[in-house]
Amino acid sequence: MSIKLPNKSHVAKLGIKRRGQEKVTQIPIKVEAVRPRIPKPSWIRVKAPLTSQVRELKTLLREQKLHTVCEEACCPNLTECFGNGTATFMIMGDVCTRRCSFCDVAHGRPLPLDEHEPQHLAETLKLLGLSYVVITSVDRDDLHDGGASHFVNCIQHIRNLNAEVRIEILVPDFRGRLDKALNILCKMPADVFNHNLETVPRLYSHARPGADYQHSLNLLQEHKRKIPRVPTKSGLMLGLGERLDEVEAAMQDLRAHDVNMLTLGQYLQPSQHHLPVQRYLHPSEFDDLRTLGQAMGFDHVASGPLVRSSYHADVQAKQAMSYS
């Protein structure tokens, strides 16, 4: 009996990046463009990332074969953070197994893990003299533990070289591997445990295909149950079409699941092929949400148009930890 082999043109090659239209066309719920596109308001101001500090840090990262989410996700604060010698490092490669339609990180079949990455990361942090670092990753649904062991290896190598540095991890959802991943992560916990809800549950099928709202809440709560002393943190991006009452409900859900720290920022469309911005919230609305979050009992709320999950993370953590 003959076996029909798959067409090679349909088999994704390892390490090939799919971005923009090539990435989002594979999502079951199609992205519908808003025309005309809503112009950016005056309070959205981003500096061009062309400073000498930016170039020097990028050179160092390439030499160490490291990636940052600042670059891969086109963060609007790249110039400010790179200019201050800080970055959010993205481990396990720069190709994600998910196809979130808000995100500019490339989709595809990732390369095998780089076993030298934890050591390179630790050496780079020591060279930069950082006292606080955020480590995030692409989704690695191809790994049996979702990459949890690699997170732990990175934490261990960093602390071996510099025991004083504080580490925040911004993790994927480990869907289908929650118990295994948390058991591994809790063997060497970070100083802050961060996982983003990203948006309200009604918009998950559009913005986070493959993810589950309640699962993300459970991940945050279960980590807090296992390691109560470690602050938990999450974030929402606004402007995707959510209602303010839905944002308030999501904030209440986070508090009900023992989350300590919250970030709220404006969604910015990476390209014409990604989910369009439905609305730009006024800075006063972010101020109101900050006040609301503080009243709900969050230890720290960072809320503003250009706030991102790891923006001024060291300041956020210091203020939140002062409450404990």
Quickly list its features.
8-stranded mixed sheet; alpha/beta; 324 residues; 13% strand
Number of helices: 12
From the spread of the alpha carbons, the general shape counts as globular
Main structural class = alpha/beta
The helix fraction, in percent, is 25-40%
| Low confidence ranges | 1-11
How is this structure best described in words?
With 324 residues, the protein is of the alpha/beta class. The protein is built from 12 helices and 10 strands. The strands form 2 sheets. An 8-stranded mixed β-sheet has the order 1-2-5-6-7-8-9-10, sandwiched between helices. Strands 3-4 form a two-stranded parallel ribbon. α6 runs parallel beside α7 and α10 packs parallel to α11 (283-296). The longest helix is centred in the middle third of the chain and has 14 residues, at 148-161. The chain is globular and about 45 Å long. It starts with 19 loop residues before the first helix and ends with a helix. Mean pLDDT is 83; it is low at 1-11.
Question: How is this fold's topology laid out?
Answer:
Elements: H1 20-24, H2 52-63, E1 67-68, H3 69-72, H4 78-83, E2 88-91, E3 95-96, E4 106-107, H5 117-128, E5 132-137, H6 148-161, E6 166-170, H7 178-185, E7 192-194, H8 204-207, H9 213-226, E8 232-238, H10 244-256, E9 261-266, H11 283-296, E10 300-303, H12 313-321
Parallel strand pairs: 2-5, 3-4, 5-6, 6-7, 7-8, 8-9, 9-10
Antiparallel strand pairs: 1-2
Helix pairs in contact: 5-6, 6-7, 10-11
